[in-house]
Design brief:
single chain, mainly beta, eight-stranded antiparallel beta barrel
Length: 99
């Protein structure tokens, strides 16, 4: 697993940060979303006003610690990117990529 981003969260629960890989470098915003049904995402991800991802609030099985399970996708991507957003030091959140 590799860290591909770092984010901060404001008082309204909006995360702002940057996603960086060898081929991707974008400033992104992760906002709480209105849910239509129980499987709808809890969050929407956008960059430059374009939505390219969604996130679901989860809890770790062993500790119960909360995190966001995220999926990013765009026609320019060869495949979706799956990642988790977890608390880090100094009120920051790290974005961890997984395959």
């Amino acid at each position: 697993m590799a860290q591909i981003g770092i984010f901060t969260r404001d008082k309204d629960g909006i995360y702002t940060g940057e996603i960086r890989t060898l081929t991707l470098r974008v400033k992104a915003v992760i906002r709480p979303a209105e849910r239509d049904h129980d499987k709808s995402p809890d969050h929407r991800v956008s960059a430059g006003g374009v939505e390219f991802g969604a996130g679901w609030t989860k809890a770790a099985r062993d500790s119960g610690a909360g995190y966001l399970s995220l999926k990013f996708d765009d026609p320019s991507f060869p495949a979706p990117i799956y990642a988790t957003l977890t608390p880090a030091e100094n009120d920051m959140f790290k974005l961890i990529w997984s395959r």
